[in-house]
Design brief:
two-stranded parallel ribbon, alpha/beta, 26% helix, eight-stranded mixed sheet
């Protein structure tokens, strides 16, 4: 059994929200969900220098602590695609980056990008963005009605088995597809690129050398999966910022339990599930993959 959930790594102070009414329309946008990533693991690896490519973009080198809008992938992404990104842990209300227009919203502020469509991808499409989804976990696989709902919000969506949870090289394949997507666009075309990273989700035992299927997943193999993602995410950042300045959001959609207080998995109301790492930052044009 894994030890109870603890989260003692340093926490970043919530960074200032940019004026998204100015960012939208002038910048490309990248939204990356590190599906199932635990906050404590993310913080520990950042503090230990084990995810250098991610950490170089984190304010102060550490993640911001937030609360997930849902306890599993489908619920959390439905909320995030409506503008409800993970919520800062301090007392609110907290101004949001994006919001659908509706009366009485206490978290819509002067710098919020407000859209009149039901979801963010269609809201960005309405102002000229090409919206592209590169799926990962099963809710993005387009192999049935339920797996088609989230990718169906985008003008263009991609999924293949190599992107899924069973592939040891899933993120490399997703990044390669993202590079092809970006290179195919006209220079003047603004892009909203969404990537759901499946590598952290179970099974992840194969990211640890010498691990076996019989031994299964653990907090340690979850951490190894994050190191694997970090080794390749520089290429994604480079592609996303290759044409112009890019505003990036990188976060978990929910965590997962590895025996914490007797719990395993997610879609439960445990602290290891509700507490997630979050960051947003600008990628300058011409960034390298290293």
């Amino acid at each position: 059994m894994q030890p109870p959930f603890t989260d003692t790594a340093p926490t970043t102070v919530a960074c200032e929200n940019p004026d998204m009414s100015g960012v939208v329309g002038s910048h490309d946008l990248l939204f990356v969900t590190l599906d199932t990533l635990r906050h404590d693991v993310a913080q520990e690896l950042a503090a230990a220098g084990r995810i250098p490519h991610l950490a170089r973009h984190l304010p102060g080198g550490a993640w911001e602590t937030r609360h997930a809008p849902g306890s599993f992938t489908y619920a959390s992404h439905q909320a995030m695609f409506a503008g409800f990104l993970p919520t800062p842990v301090g007392p609110g209300p907290h101004p949001r980056l994006f919001a659908a227009r509706f009366a009485g919203s206490e978290s819509t502020a002067s710098g919020t990008f407000v859209f009149d469509t039901p979801d963010l991808p269609s809201g960005l499409a309405s102002v000229g963005y090409r919206t592209v989804c590169i799926g990962g976990v099963g809710f993005f696989n387009k192999q049935g009605a339920l797996g088609s709902v989230l990718p169906g919000l985008f003008q263009e969506s991609h999924w293949e088995p190599e992107f899924g949870v069973a592939s040891p090289t899933s993120f490399e394949a997703q990044v390669a597809r993202a590079e092809r997507v970006v290179s195919s666009l006209a220079p003047e075309q603004r892009l909203f690129l969404f990537v759901n990273v499946s590598a952290l989700h179970q099974p992840n035992w194969f990211h640890t050398p010498g691990a076996t299927r019989e031994a299964g997943d653990s907090r340690a193999t979850h951490a190894a999966a994050l190191e694997y993602v970090d080794a390749h995410i520089g290429r994604l950042f480079a592609a996303a910022s290759s044409r112009r300045r890019c505003f990036a959001i990188v976060c978990s959609d929910h965590g997962t339990a590895y025996g914490d207080d007797g719990y395993t998995g997610h879609r439960i109301g445990h602290e290891s599930v509700w507490t997630v790492p979050y960051a947003h930052f600008f990628l300058e044009p011409g960034a390298t993959a290293s």
